[in-house]
Predict the 3D structure of the following.
Amino acid sequence: MDIPRFHIAFPVNNLKSTKDFFTKVLGCSLGRESDKWIDFNMYGHQVVAHFSPEDCIKSNVNKVDGDMVSCRHFGVILPWDNWEKLREKIKNKKIKFMIKPKIRFKNLKGEQGTFFLEDPSGNVLEFKSFKNDSMVFEK
């Protein structure tokens, strides 16, 4: 599917640990960077970490299918095979899942594989996949 790329900027409290997490754990490539921000290529989308420790705050949570999900999070919807590969990569690196990989809404509309990670600054990322891409927005 050919869709526009998104851009998101978020605060971090340490650029080096953020750079290591996004490149070594998630496999993002680097774009431009300065002593105040870093651009990452996350599956073709531009995500930008801005050094702003005072803005690194925890968000509230909502209960979703039995899990307490951070109200403020971002991530990507991957093809199923890519989601499984990333899940295994995270497991093999012994990175702690904030919410462990699971199938959410099993046998219901919107059934999806999902897991959540927290970056070193407390930003929450969700990685998900739908076996059937038409379910992404199905009610």
Summary: The chain has one domain: 7-53+60-135. DSSP finds two helices and ten strands in the chain. The CA atoms of residues 79 and 94 lie 23 Å apart.
